[in-house]
Amino acid sequence: GSYKILRSWRVHNTCQPVVPGVNPIEAVQIIWVLDFENPILTCADDITISTSSIDCNGAYLIPAPVVETGCTNWDYTVSASNGDLSQLPNGTYLLSGLDEGVYTIRYEVEDECGRYSECILNLTVVDQVGPTAACEDGLNVSLDGNGSAIISTADIDGNSEDLCGEVEFAMRRLYEFDASSCEPIAPYYTEWDASVGVSCCDLQDLVTVELRVTDEDGNSSICWTEILVEDKIAPTCIAPNDVTITCVDYTNSLPNDIADATEAQLDAMFGFAGGADNCSVTITQTVTGSINNCG
What we know:
By secondary structure, this protein is mainly beta. It is built from 3 helices and 20 strands. The strands form 7 sheets. A 5-stranded mixed β-sheet has the order 12-18-17-14-15, with no helix packed on it. A 4-stranded mixed β-sheet has the order 4-11-10-7, with no helix packed on it. A 3-stranded antiparallel β-sheet has the order 5-9-8, with no helix packed on it.
């Protein structure tokens, strides 16, 4: 740092007698060594930080500046364009309560020689925290009269949210059976959409669906759930018309014990039953009672 040098001089005229204060003569020369350069101050590079996972605010522990100066000691202060700035016991600064945006942090350094410098750091706060995706559990879906049902994102959303703003939803489902033949296939997911469909082929097993939640900054989170698809619509049975046959007809077309008759024999003698359902139907027939060719 700056300092001074004291240089003492004594001049003695050897041709004259010694007289105190006169011969020799004494004087002091003062040499000042001064620092005329401002300190060299280096700020950290501009930086981007995220909001926290607790609230939609960011916080930044401001590092001390790098200072080069000809003086021994120096001190610095920090100011910010916005936010809550506090100085910690160790002398460093904490900037907190930061919403998303760009903030200016200014360093000001003064050395013991009174020389001053400043520099600026730009701090950007963005939301890099994904939203909370929550799916409903234990969902049951009933097929309609056409054997299908539509499930929307609202049906499976379990109050998903984001700390910083609104969210958008999309969903997809896993296919493990062919939607037409109901035969097993290599599993695959559909594209993301606002809804998915289920059909009669999904009665075989639980249907896995995923919900994607995306916030305003493009951060996404995914949850999944399994849906039980049910068919609660009873099929309709259409019986053939009543038929009256003679014992001769019976003897010629049916076995002695009608319980031994095949379905083809029964259909030929009494007619075909029909059935209707939103999904597929299987028709079976049974004979009750003990009837033979004698009535």
